[in-house]
Amino acid sequence: MASADTLKSLGEMLLSGDITVVDCTGVLGPKTPLLKLPPELAKDTPPIEIHRISEYDDNGPFWAWNWLKLGEHSGTHFDAPHHWITGKDYADGYTDTLDLQRVVAPVNVIDCSAEAAENPDFLLTAEHVKDWEAKHGEIGAGEWVVMRSDWDRRAHDEGEFLNADATGPHSPGPSVDCIEYLIGKGIVGWGSQCIGTDAGQAGGMEPPFPAHNLLHKNNMFGLASLANLDKLPAKGAILIAAPLKIEHGTGSPIRALALVPRG
Question: Which of 73, 77, 82, 83 is flagged as catalytic?
Fold first, then answer.
């Protein structure tokens, strides 16, 4: 049972540095890589724009501020259930109606960086997850699960990050049975360091784009373009992934933060 002493202890550990706050967010700006879709399938998110309103000048002598133009699913971002057709009927499936209690939760970090370096089309399967659990412990209901691929190291170059050729994008992600297994565990959501929550070639799976299709069908969340997952332990950290409270929002750029015990 939580108590005032528990929160007091947490506060003291944050102040002392016994708990480190790790930024799991990429920089959001005009050079941030954005998803590119086939023109016959859909319209793309427009490029991110940052416009100066004033900076201690005639337009505002004592203050500096900007206005922004960006899509909900730009940079490190949150996918709400309403983002996908399978989640469209959830009343609490928007960024302004979801249960915030769910977005702060323990996080399980599955390290696939070696496999992704060897094969950009690497798929994390249910069997891989079960092997990980045998080593690190069970994934619990209501917890986040994120796939560490170190793909964020490519984010300086959109071409490298999207990694597309004539056959489409090539980036690691989950298999269908992986997502089905995690849904069965009752997770709150799944996250990736790639441009989206699915593998680059996920359009050819059955069902297509299983992370989007199946997670949102079950009122679960997605996180994309996460960063610095190499600084998190396999277990033991808390992930805070709160979207902006956009009216009827299907998603939102976020500042994803992890609370990590020192040592």
Answer: 83
